[in-house]
């Protein structure tokens, strides 16, 4: 510990005898300490403590109005948890009882009056050294905690990025921009927020929804990219993407993947019970009902190798037509409500424009 750091410490002296304050102050200044405040009225000690923020307090025990014991009690509530502000008691009362009581109240050391100047300086130096070691340790711990927080954040980001890339891998064959999955995530979050789901739930949906079609990985190109109508056999095969997605995502302990599994399995359920697994109404997990609407909206409004993009109005008409049939009526209402509030139209249009500007061929198709 550098001597200058210790000498730059702030020291508060509280003693009702002015000559005692003066003696200690002079002694400390002589030893190079410059930041010293002396008080003879202990009633001002707490206010001075807050203003001056001392690194060490030297106090008398026997004082009128507020004695040293009462002051020690008051100081305990002022010193923050984890802080170390040593109190050195200056006392003529050398009794065992007084020492024990002061120690119990947080005093760290004693000086018996009349004060031995050399001893006082050594004890003050030692206490301040301990004080600054505490400060250093606290700062070191804080910087370690900050590093751990940063690493944890990085790790979470990396995990989310891996999920995005997994979704991209699944969509790559029929949407090489990879934007469909992300748009479905954003739109699902928008709809989830609009029906009042809590913010943390909305975030899980935002990251889970893009994985809805991850099971397409297991569907052959000849079926997935077929531009003409699918045969019944081919349709049965393409329906398997829900189950394959579930298998890929199953067994995780993480909420995002658990939700992604439910969405993958049930995003082709219909409100009227005529979907892949014949779940009906609220039997279908809410997140899957949300994704089924935004997925259809996004598929209609964007081009694929086997289909052209249609306008936002066409998609909204289709969704409205399927209210209570394919889709949850309450969610359809909430989705259509998003339109006048600009969110949906702007998001849909902005995303369409962004995609068109990246790929002129697709812009022509629209
Ligand atoms: Fe799907």
Number of helices: 16
What's the overall average pLDDT, rounded?
Answer: 88
Q: Terminal Cα separation, in Å?
A: 72 Å
Strand order of the largest sheet: 2-1-3-4-5
Helix percent reads: 55-70%
Rounded to an integer in angstroms, the radius of gyration calculated over CA atoms is 36 Å
Strand content: 5-15%
Small-molecule binders here are: fe (ii) ion
Taking pLDDT < 50 over at least 5 consecutive residues as the criterion, the unreliable ranges are: 358-366
Largest sheet: 5 strands, parallel
Number of strands: 5
Q: What shape does the CA trace take?
A: rod-shaped
> Element order, helices and strands?
HEHEHEHEHEHHHHHHHHHHH
The SS-based structural class is alpha/beta
Characterize the structure shown.
By secondary structure, the protein is α/β, with parallel strands linked by helices. Helix content is 60%, strand content 7%. It is built from 16 helices and five strands. The protein has helices spanning 3-7, 18-30, 45-52, 68-78, 96-104, 117-171, 179-194, 199-208, 221-224, 232-249, 255-266, 286-301, 312-321, 329-338, 343-358, 360-365, and strands spanning 10-14, 35-39, 56-60, 87-91, 109-112. A five-stranded parallel beta sheet has the order 2-1-3-4-5, with helices on both faces. Helix 2 links the parallel strand 1 (10-14) and strand 2 (35-39). Helix 8 (199-208) crosses helix 11 (255-266) and helix 10 (232-249) runs antiparallel to helix 11. It starts with a helix and ends with a helix. 33% of the residues are buried. The model is unreliable at 358-366 (pLDDT under 50). The structure holds fe (ii) ion. Fe (ii) ion (FE2) binds next to loops.
